[in-house]
Amino acid sequence: FNVIKARYVASAVRADQYPPEDLPEIAFIGRSNVGKSSLINSLCRHHGLARVSASPGKTQTINFYAVTAKLPDERRLEWYLVDLPGYGYARTGQAQRRQWTRFVEEYFLRSSRLKLVCQLVDLRHLPQASDVAMYDWLKTHDLTVQVVATKADKIGRTHLARHIAAIKNGLQLETGGIIAYSALSGQGRNDLLDAIGQILLK
Ligand code: GTP
Ligand code: MG
């Protein structure tokens, strides 16, 4: 299907700052700098919608974007994409890390509107301890997870399958596949939109 509109709605660090509209939510989590904000821009084909930066720790709040898409049968579908601050950034202090954990966990646990968590990992590297811990935490809390491997343009086609297998193994992926994604080329965009559509239409 086609995204026809995407707009920034709100930033939050507490539950009372979440937007009031009752729309389903698709959230994006991953290490700092893995490409969450870039992926949101690429999915929406809206350059500059979410702020991107070459230095990690750019996104510091929970940011909500309202997206409208048109289905092949002309029906409209509306939901929030939720951009979360990254984890695993070495230069953040203890206090900030605790704060991160508190407000991201609060987000994951309070939301009945949260339909899918897209966990992003870098396709080039094995999942790090923080990625494994995040995946296990999400699974423990019965959240539906789609793993997306980012920066696919940096890996040659011939190495793709090997890297995907290594990530599956590293995360001990329970079910489902991994989508290889490139925000530069748009590789994986249709697959991820399909996965989101399936969840939203369920
Ligand atoms: P934080 O907000 O700091 O947690 O980072 P983030 O996960 O939102 O990452 P962001 O989208 O800001 O991207 C980080 C860097 O990676 C930027 O320099 C992007 O240009 C680059 N990047 C993101 N996605 C891709 C991709 O698919 N391919 C390539 N080559 N670079 C990418
Ligand atoms: Mg970001």
What does this 3D model show about the protein?
The structure is a single chain. With 202 residues, the chain is of the alpha/beta class. It has one domain: Rossmann fold (3-Layer(aba) Sandwich), CATH 3.40.50. The chain has five helices and seven strands. The chain has helices at residues 36-44, 94-110, 129-140, 160-171, 189-201; strands spanning 2-12, 25-30, 62-70, 76-83, 114-122, 145-150, 178-180. A seven-stranded mixed beta sheet has the order 1-3-4-2-5-6-7, sandwiched between helices. The protein is globular, with a radius of gyration of 16 Å. The two termini are 15 Å apart.
Summarize the model shown.
With 202 residues, the protein is an alpha/beta fold. The chain contains five helices and seven strands, in the order ββαββαβαβαβα. Necessary for normal cell division and for the maintenance of normal septation.
